[in-house]
């Protein structure tokens, strides 16, 4: 007799546990869930008559007193007779639950915290797989979370696999190791869910079908593109996950039977935290050996025992020895196991090795004794795992392990005939960081390799021989030029060479043609060259000095002409130059031609893998583009976004020239993208566009949801490539096309953004985030100012900050002067009808820049124009009047006209003391300026008076390591030395030094200044030892090189 599915009881106990019970096939089933930890249970409710259940469905309030729930297992029980009634029983039940929860609260908190973190990472990774922006760091973070210590491992695994079959992700070969890692992580979380829990809810047939279809699609991609993608590790993991999902119901039955027959297993699972697991584990293994054949549990046996064994237990003194015994025992019979079991066993061995749960001597023994035998196994999946373990061991920190693994790897390479395993054999080793290495060692290791290469290359096919030819030429010479038409992939080939041969270099630096100065100044500071006005010149001298002994690869990208390299090229065995250019003026160049038809076809098959296109259509499209890489890529975008067949697309570009076909294709692609977004992008340089800037502007204009859609469109249409640091790059030809369509509608939005966010001041040197933002925006602001006329006060202000950024970060006075001329030209054309306050601000900005450039006459000219306007239109106590008075005082102080300087400073002081609060920073600033003035006039009494007023304010309002505090301490030190009060002078100098050594780079010029001041002080005190110490530190910076950097 069957009852309708409407007979359902739904309860919530203790505001935490959700219970749903229903009648099915003459049985009562229950499903319970912990709403906090997300843990679930399902099973039969025993002892409840069906008629009683139906009667209860209409009395749910009363029914809640007739059931109990075990907070640990979530099992639901029917309370017969008086057990279900009475307040006494209910209180006892609540007390029991409260007691258990109280004892395990720390455990529950840990489960919830880990679950939250794991789920957040899984969501980010899943979304990034869809958008081709996978963050390696997030994958590594999730890999470190123990699934045993998560409340809902199943939820994490399913979220991680949500977009696992996204075509966009599988078209990026450089992510193959990340895909394998994601599959491996998902497999481990599923193992914990299916095997570790007492009772699990089997996946519905619909869920199974959905997941299996995803995996079948992935397997199809891997098998179809095997010669392009070394995805064998992923393939093995996917097959294991499929088997887990297929056998989820069998696993549940199998596990329930074990629980009934083996109390030791339950003890291990529940009480592992306080129990040495080794004796119980041995019993478990023996039990499995006796029952595995009956229960078809061989595969699950390995999964289970290794998952249990991997749990942390600090009290197990012999755990390492027992682990090694277990691994060795299983390795001896590995060739008799199925490949799934063998794969999990080898995976367990590799994890134990990485986590140092087994000794290095044992690892070496396995290398010499077992792995040579395992490699003879006929199953390619097992050989694939062996080869991957050897990849890890070839990067091991122990030289004996490294050498033995290398020899075995080479031996396998000679003998192996299976093409699938040969793919893995061709991959570079994985470098392992020793888990317990000291932080110092880690930092030193990072310093051994220097690079600014941030972005990944786009899909590279058919360029393997070119990359090998580049390496051959750079071995024989120190320069190699790659030339070719735009869109051929010159930059991608250069960056792929840098990836493939990274181990040959200790420094890899990319210099873009539109930011040569900025990129080389950045490299110079990395090499220890002092950052000042002569940084670039010192770098040139350093290159020619032949003092660089490290191997260096300099990639000059997209040079327009040969002369751009002249100042930086030197003949050296240690410095290699890789040039990309459209110019044909280079003598020994490698001409990058079109892709071959075969390689073009391979590319199209991979990109259009989800389209059921026949081979004739793919060949026709490959021939139409004749190996033009950009055309191939954008044709794929056009086909996908317009839902064309290849034949329909070919009709679209029929009878067009290559240039016309490119434009037509781009038109069909960008027509699907928000027009204003493309206009915004057109104002930026093609490389290193900061995503955060684009996001801020578009979210403000369109909202978060629309921003997400726009971003996905740009990525999916291959308009932008994104690197691991969220910087975008756009192909030059695509950028030129976008710029040709610009109608100027987004100009004001970008001006507003730069006006708010591109502000240069002294604080940027200690605010790392702000400094990085200025550096990121600098080339793009340059491009914007270069192309546009100055039409507003905001644009003038942006120019003002741009000049300061160029002078502070690049020391390029010529470029600064060119931009200043635009500002002056705008100022000279100002009419009397414009806003006078804005006009005065323009004059003030220009005057400030001229004073920075030490052109005091021009500075005075514009300051006086500003002063004349403000004295006419502003109230006597207006803060803008105080500002120009202060600037005039500084100007005349620099001109050593101390009378005029004092006059203007006093006017400023008079206003500020009346309108500002007693602890206002502007008051501290004018007090400091007055102190400097009187110090220069040798009026030390007044100087000290104002310095102390400044110091009193700054010590109350500034952070202890603020640079302004260091500055006033230095000024006080100088003053006290002039007064021959050497004790106080030393006290203030040391305070200044303490701040600057913590906030400044080792070669910062301000450090040189304080070292020089302290040397002079100790010279006056006749303390020769300390004089020598600080004078040599001063010289070390002044000479432009750090002592250690001489051996770079």
From TrEMBL:
NB-ARC domain location: 464-585
InterPro entries in UniProt: NB-ARC, P-loop_NTPase, TPR-like_helical_dom_sf, TPR_rpt
Pfam families: NB-ARC, TPR_12, TPR_8
Keyword Repeat: yes
Assigned keywords, A-Z: Repeat, TPR repeat
GO molecular function: ADP binding
Entry-linked SMART domains: TPR
Protein's name in the database: NB-ARC domain-containing protein
Organism: Stentor coeruleus
């Amino acid at each position: 007799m069957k009852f309708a599915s409407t007979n359902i009881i739904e309860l919530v106990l203790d505001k935490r546990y959700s219970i749903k019970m229903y009648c099915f096939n003459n049985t009562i089933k229950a499903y319970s869930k912990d709403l906090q930890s997300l843990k679930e249970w399902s099973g039969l409710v025993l002892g409840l008559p069906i008629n009683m259940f139906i009667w209860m469905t209409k009395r749910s309030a009363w029914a809640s007193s007739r059931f109990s729930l075990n907070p640990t297992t979530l099992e639901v029980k029917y309370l017969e007779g008086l057990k279900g009634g009475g307040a006494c029983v209910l209180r006892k039940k609540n007390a029991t639950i409260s007691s258990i929860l109280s004892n395990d609260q720390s455990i529950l908190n840990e489960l919830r915290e880990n679950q939250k973190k794991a789920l957040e990472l899984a969501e980010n990774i899943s979304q990034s797989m869809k958008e081709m922006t996978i963050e390696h760091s997030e994958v590594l973070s999730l890999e470190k979370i123990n699934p045993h210590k998560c409340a809902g491992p199943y939820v994490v695994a399913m979220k991680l696999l949500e977009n696992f079959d996204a075509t966009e992700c599988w078209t990026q070969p450089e992510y193959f190791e990340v895909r394998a890692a994601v599959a491996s992580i998902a497999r481990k979380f599923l193992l914990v869910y299916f095997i570790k829990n007492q009772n699990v809810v089997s996946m519905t047939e619909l869920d199974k079908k959905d997941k299996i279809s995803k995996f079948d699609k992935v397997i199809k991609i891997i098998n179809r593109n095997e010669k392009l993608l070394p995805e064998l590790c992923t393939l093995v993991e996917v097959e294991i996950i499929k088997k887990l999902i297929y056998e989820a119901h069998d696993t549940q039955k199998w596990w329930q039977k074990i629980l009934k027959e083996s109390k030791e297993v339950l003890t291990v699972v529940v009480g592992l935290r306080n129990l040495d697991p080794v004796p119980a584990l041995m019993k478990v293994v023996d039990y499995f050996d006796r029952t595995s054949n009956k229960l078809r549990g061989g595969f699950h046996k390995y999964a289970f025992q290794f998952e249990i064994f991997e749990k942390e237990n600090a009290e197990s003194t012999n755990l390492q020895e027992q682990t090694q015994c277990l691994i060795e025992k299983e390795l001896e019979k590995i060739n008799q196991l199925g490949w799934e079991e063998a794969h999990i066993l080898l995976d367990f061995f590799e994890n134990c090795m990485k986590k140092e749960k087994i000794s290095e001597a044992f690892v070496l023994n396995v290398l010499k004794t077992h792995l040579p035998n395992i490699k003879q196994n006929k199953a390619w999946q097992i050989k694939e795992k062996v080869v991957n373990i050897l990849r890890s061991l070839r990067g091991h920190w122990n030289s004996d392990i490294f050498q033995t693994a290398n020899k075995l790897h080479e031996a396998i390479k000679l003998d192996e005939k299976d093409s699938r395993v040969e793919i893995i054999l061709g991959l570079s080793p994985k470098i392992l960081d020793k888990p317990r290495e000291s932080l110092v060692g880690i930092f030193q290791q990072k310093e051994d390799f220097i690079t600014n290469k941030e972005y990944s290359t786009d899909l590279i096919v058919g360029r393997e021989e070119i990359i090998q030819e580049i390496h051959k030429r750079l071995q024989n010479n120190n320069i190699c030029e790659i030339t070719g038409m735009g869109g051929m992939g010159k930059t991608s080939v250069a960056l792929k060479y840098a990836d493939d041969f990274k181990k040959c270099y200790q420094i890899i630096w990319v210099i873009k043609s539109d930011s040569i100065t900025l990129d080389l100044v950045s490299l110079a500071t990395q090499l220890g060259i002092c950052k000042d006005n002569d940084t670039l010149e010192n770098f040139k001298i350093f290159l020619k000095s032949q003092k660089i002994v490290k191997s260096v690869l300099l990639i000059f990208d997209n040079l327009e002409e040969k002369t751009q390299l002249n100042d930086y090229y030197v003949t050296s065995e240690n410095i290699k130059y890789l040039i990309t250019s459209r110019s044909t003026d280079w003598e020994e160049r490698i001409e990058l031609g079109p892709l071959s038809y075969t390689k073009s076809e391979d590319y199209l098959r991979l990109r259009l893998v989800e389209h059921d296109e026949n081979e004739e259509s793919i060949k026709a499209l490959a021939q139409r583009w004749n190996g033009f890489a950009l055309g191939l890529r954008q044709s794929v975008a056009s086909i996908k976004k317009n839902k064309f067949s290849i034949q329909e697309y070919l009709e679209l570009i029929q009878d067009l020239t290559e240039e016309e076909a490119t434009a037509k294709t781009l038109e069909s692609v960008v027509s699907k993208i928000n027009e204003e977004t493309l206009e915004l992008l057109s104002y930026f340089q093609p490389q290193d566009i900061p995503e955060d800037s684009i996001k801020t502007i578009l979210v403000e204009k369109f909202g978060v949801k629309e921003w997400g859609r726009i971003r996905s469109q740009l990525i999916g249409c291959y308009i932008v490539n994104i690197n691991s640091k969220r910087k975008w790059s756009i192909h030059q030809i695509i950028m030129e096309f976008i710029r040709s369509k610009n109608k100027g509608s987004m100009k004001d939005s970008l001006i507003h953004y730069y006006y708010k966010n591109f502000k240069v001041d002294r604080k940027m040197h200690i605010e790392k985030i702000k400094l990085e933002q200025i550096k990121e925006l600098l080339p793009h602001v340059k491009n914007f100012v270069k192309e546009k006329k100055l039409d507003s006060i905001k644009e003038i202000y942006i120019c003002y900050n741009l000049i300061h950024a160029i002078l502070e970060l690049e020391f390029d006075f010529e470029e600064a002067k060119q931009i200043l001329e635009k500002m002056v030209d705008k100022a000279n054309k100002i009419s009397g009808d414009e806003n006078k306050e804005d006009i005065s601000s323009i004059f003030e900005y220009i005057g400030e820049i001229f004073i920075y450039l030490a052109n005091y006459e021009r500075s005075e000219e514009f300051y006086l124009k500003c002063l004349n306007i403000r004295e006419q239109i502003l109230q006597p106590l207006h803060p803008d009047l105080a500002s120009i008075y202060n600037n005039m005082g500084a100007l005349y102080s620099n001109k050593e006209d101390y009378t005029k300087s004092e006059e203007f400073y006093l006017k400023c002081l008079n206003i500020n003391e009346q309108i500002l609060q007693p602890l206002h920073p502007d008051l501290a600033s004018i007090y400091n300026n007055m102190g400097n003035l009187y110090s220069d006039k040798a009026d030390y009494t007044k100087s000290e008076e104002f310095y102390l007023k400044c110091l009193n304010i700054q010590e109350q309002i500034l952070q202890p390591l603020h640079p302004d505090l260091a500055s006033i301490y230095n000024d006080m030190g100088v003053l006290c030395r002039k007064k021959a009060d050497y004790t106080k002078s030393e006290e203030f100098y040391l305070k200044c030094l303490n701040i600057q050594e913590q906030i400044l780079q080792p070669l910062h010029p301000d450090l040189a200044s304080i070292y020089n001041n302290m040397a002079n002080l100790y010279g006056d005190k006749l303390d020769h030892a300390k004089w020598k110490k600080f004078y040599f530190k001063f010289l070390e910076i002044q000479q432009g090189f750090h002592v250690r950097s001489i051996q770079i």
